[in-house]
What does this fold into?
Amino acid sequence: MPRPLLVSIDLQALNHNFDQVRRLAPQSRVWAVVKSNAYGHGLVRVARALRRADGFAVVDIGDAIRLREVGIRKPVLLMQGVTDATELRVCNEESLHTVVHSIEQVRMMESLLRRRPLDLYLKMNAGMNRLGFPASQYIDIYRRITARQPLNSISLMTHFADADGAGGVDEPLRRFLEACNYLQGERSAANSAALFRYPQAHLDWVRPGIALYGSSPFAEQSASELGLLPVMTLSSALIAIQEVAQGGRVGYGGSFVAPRDMRVGVVACGYADGYPRHATEGTPVLVSGLRAPLIGRVSMEMITVDLTRLPEAQVGSEVVLWGEGLPVDEVAACSGTVGYELLTGLSARVPVEERRAPGDPR
Ligand SMILES: Cc1ncc(COP(=O)(O)O)c(C=O)c1O
It folds into this structure.
């Protein structure tokens, strides 16, 4: 018997979230961000399900090749660009769009012959200080590239550091648009947070990631308040129940001491499955649809929960760790992290089940 652990991917919810993106940015095209195995949801599965996306954005060139191998011919964007001549050749042969963010990449492109003209995204560092050319160099680099490179297209992009926070996008967007005034090319700036909060940043292409998967980019606003549905549900079951007397200890280190006689449920899911090791006491799980708090330390393959208020719970009762009925963002907040980390951190060993719309063939 396999462990009773399963991740279910709801492709209807994924498409619902995509519709929400379209509603918010009706004039823009959508790069669906599917990097990091589509935030843990399965690269090919998600790309096939998002038939209405205008293109797919990845980081790893292996992911781009995989999308081409399974027959996806839509635009694919390498968001960190290429790192060497081999990658540039693949990028050219597979007709990938690629970001150019550094002078090293510019020089590499200039030194190599190619079969086809490139589709480039020239990245501005508008204040995040991670990737891209500063505003002061952006126009010159654009001119250098357009003068020396055979190009199919050149687009302009930036990325916001604080679209989800108090900083907002005003200053970086102003810098970006100012430079864009002098340059030809489609423009792209908005991640999920900017998509929701800053319509003026939608421009020609939006680049949502987390919103597609039904998790909120904001600490203070839930996914359901944003009209999003969870795509991933991680579920398991109770595999044992202990009657623990007052003063008894639970789990490694005995960090939890029973304040009274209690029923403790043991759930088949632990940090080796992707459940956060630092989840604090009180982190909710759903047992047969009802909330129960985590107690004791998270183990490699188990967690323990307080069932005192759930007398109906028994060995075999279904447990939801996050997803439908229990936002991943809430679980993440209890471990001092964000939904992004939990979704992308799910272990590859967890079996996956897909849920589709009735009548949907794939
Ligand atoms: C350049 C770029 N654009 C868009 C995204 C999507 O961001 P989000 O998942 O917050 O929508 C990311 C993700 O980190 C990114 O690096």
Q: What stands out?
A: The chain has a mean pLDDT of 96. The chain is about 25% helix and 25% strand. The first strand starts at residue 6 and ends at 10.
